[in-house]
Amino acid sequence: MRTLLLEDDPALAESIVRQLRSDWLDVTTATSPRAAREQFSGGSYGLVIVDADALGNGGLDWLVQFRSANPDVLLLVLGAGSAEDCIRRLEEGADDYISKPFSAGELSARAKALLRRAGGPAKSVLRVEDLELDRIQRTVRRGSYTIELTQKEFVLLDFLMQHALQPVPRRKIVEQAWKLNPGSVTNVVDVYINYLRKKVDTGFDRPLIHTIRGVGYQIGRS
Asked: What is the dihedral of CA 35, 40, 45, 49, to 10 degrees?
């Protein structure tokens, strides 16, 4: 798959490109957002890797615009920010986020994991009591109500429903559902669970999302 890397650090770019090419990815580089746009418009790319530092002050706007114009392209963001920065990047359209410092090998592994996940779309409808998630249409309903979720909220709910009636550790959500580094986003799961609870449970008589003390979260009761 053709990959576009936006990285303004020459040494880091060289290390990443060497690793990705050794793993048989066809990589093109750009050193500025403008150059990245020009490169992207001139070729067919399935994966774009962006160093947030190379985007400058308009980074979030760039991500929003890119995702809106290219909904089917995988977007992997590199950054040195806090957990809150990670949340913003994910909300604005990133498919994955890697915190600095990282190794080129880790980045390559995460890129390949994204590609594998994209290559195997789900083909079923998941149900827990009166909650229904359609993994093909990417819709969620509870009873007669349609629930609007962000991309990351949908992925989290999908993962919980795949493991319905089972306690799911936070680390497992971070590593397996979002493909993130658990060491840098320790509170992101709690934040997103609160988002989901407001949308999935608020206004209904029976809550579906439960905290399992000392473990993580569970959807549904056995």
From this structure: 40
CATH of domain 125-219: 1.10.10.10
Q: What is the pLDDT of residues 47-99, one digit of tens each?
A: 899 998 888 776 677 888 887 787 778 889 898 766 677 777 777 778 888 88
Residue 105 has a CB neighbour count (10 Å cut-off) of 12
CATH number for the region 2-118 comes to 3.40.50.2300
Chain segment 151-164, per-residue pLDDT in tens = 889 989 988 998 88
* Residues 170, 68 contacting (CB under 8 angstroms): no
- Hunting for tokens 């990959």 — which residue is that? 3
Give Cα separations from 186 to 47, 49, 171, 181, 202 (angstroms).
26, 23, 8, 9, 25
